[in-house]
């Protein structure tokens, strides 16, 4: 395990983040989670491209070039000594006395990172989703560190015995709390289009590429929640989730703040439909 803060390798909880830090006080920053397989950062270029898009979206000047960032990540992996790891990289607007306005003049962005060992999820048993309303803001495509709706959704799913949330916005099943959502129907893959309402997952992009190579059609379209019973299978994807099959979708009348579409009778997808 290794930590990093503004040029220094540190132990992850050494407490060096200033109190007047905008990520800490406002969630004013962006991040990436990158998977390291066999000591190498997987799909690093795609992660860096997305990180740069996120920085631009919230108007933070990148504190280094993409090449310098890639070098840093490689150094972090070596320093950690891990082969199978998750790399968390965060960039915030910097440290300044608390004020909603951006610091003027601008301050240098703060860069922090951790590298921790992880195990593959691939062999895990199929999981369960809990359907709930997507209460995130309208810019879910930006990978910001503001994740309160996501963590509440995932905790609620966990409390109901599910592995992840199935988020419904405008009647359509678009994403999970920390993964992208996929359906299999009529030998096609269906996933929500990468518009402003979902994070354009790196693993999602990789699966689209794999499907293309395998000749499996992918439809990027929003599947209405009322069509849940028409699907043959469900899976979710993410950097740490990898490709995780789902065999059940729960709906619950007691889930707080949820107004569900009418899914009466569709409470459970049978396991045999989702191979
Ligand atoms: N989460 N959707 C959301 C809301 C996510 O937070 C993530 C990733 C994904 C999948 O994206 P990718 O394939 O690029 O990891 C989709 C990361 C891993 C996290 O917050 O830990």
From TrEMBL:
<dbReference type="InterPro" id="IPR050571">
    <property type="entry name" value="Class-IV_PLP-Dep_Aminotrnsfr"/>
</dbReference>
<comment type="similarity">
    <text>Belongs to the class-IV pyridoxal-phosphate-dependent aminotransferase family.</text>
</comment>
<dbReference type="GO" id="GO:0003824">
    <property type="term" value="F:catalytic activity"/>
</dbReference>
<dbReference type="InterPro" id="IPR001544">
    <property type="entry name" value="Aminotrans_IV"/>
</dbReference>
<dbReference type="GO" id="GO:0046394">
    <property type="term" value="P:carboxylic acid biosynthetic process"/>
</dbReference>
<dbReference type="GO" id="GO:0008652">
    <property type="term" value="P:amino acid biosynthetic process"/>
</dbReference>
<dbReference type="InterPro" id="IPR043132">
    <property type="entry name" value="BCAT-like_C"/>
</dbReference>
<dbReference type="GO" id="GO:0005829">
    <property type="term" value="C:cytosol"/>
</dbReference>
<dbReference type="InterPro" id="IPR036038">
    <property type="entry name" value="Aminotransferase-like"/>
</dbReference>
<protein>
    <submittedName>
        <fullName>D-alanine transaminase</fullName>
    </submittedName>
</protein>
<dbReference type="Pfam" id="PF01063">
    <property type="entry name" value="Aminotran_4"/>
</dbReference>
<comment type="subunit">
    <text>Homodimer.</text>
</comment>
<dbReference type="InterPro" id="IPR043131">
    <property type="entry name" value="BCAT-like_N"/>
</dbReference>
<keyword id="KW-0663">Pyridoxal phosphate</keyword>
């Amino acid at each position: 395990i290794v930590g990093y803060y503004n040029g220094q390798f540190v132990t992850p909880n050494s407490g060096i983040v200033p109190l007047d830090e905008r990520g800490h006080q406002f969630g004013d920053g962006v991040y990436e989670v990158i998977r390291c397989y066999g000591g190498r950062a997987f799909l690093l270029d795609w992660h860096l491209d997305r990180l740069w898009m996120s920085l631009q979206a919230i108007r933070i000047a990148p504190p280094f070039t993409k090449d310098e960032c890639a070098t840093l990540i490689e150094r972090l992996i070596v320093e950690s000594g891990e082969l199978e790891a998750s790399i968390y990289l965060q960039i915030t607007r910097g440290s300044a006395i608390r004020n909603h306005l951006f610091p003027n003049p601008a301050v240098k962005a703060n860069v922090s990172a951790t590298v921790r060992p992880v195990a593959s999820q691939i062999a895990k048993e199929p999981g369960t989703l809990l359907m709930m309303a997507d209460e995130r803001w309208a810019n879910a495509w930006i990978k910001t560190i503001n994740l309160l709706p996501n963590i509440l959704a995932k905790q609620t799913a966990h409390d109901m015995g599910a592995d992840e949330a199935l988020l419904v916005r405008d009647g359509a099943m678009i994403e999970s709390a920390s993964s992208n959502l996929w359906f299999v129907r009529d030998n096609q893959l269906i996933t929500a289009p990468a518009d402003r309402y979902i994070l354009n997952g790196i693993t999602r992009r990789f699966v689209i590429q794999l499907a293309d190579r395998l000749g499996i059609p992918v439809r990027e379209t929003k599947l209405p929640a009322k069509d849940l019973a028409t699907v043959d299978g469900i899976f979710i994807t993410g950097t740490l989730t990898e490709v995780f099959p789902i065999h059940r979708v729960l709906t619950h009348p007691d889930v707080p703040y949820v107004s569900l579409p009418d899914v009466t009778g569709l409470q459970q997808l049978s396991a045999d439909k989702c191979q």
